Amino acid sequence: MAQVLISLKIYPTDIMDLNKLKQKIEKQLPKYAIIHKTAEEPIAYGLSALIAQILIPENQEGALDQLEQTLQKIPEISQIQ
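The structure assignment produced for this chain is given below.
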């Protein structure tokens, strides 16, 4: 089965340990989604965004929308690009 790699920039609501945010995201992800790689991108004044590369199946209908909706439900996330 082919997979698609999606890169998302995830902005936290406040300055925080992004490893804890990554762990929360991993627990909330749908079963078909897997975090491939993460990185931190400094924004300003100690605030950093989490860059998450997530693998999802190519043939899973509505997978990206469902993934974004799941991530938006996490209180520590303010915005996703």
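Interim note for the steering committee: The chain has a mean pLDDT of 93. The longest helix spans residues 18-28.
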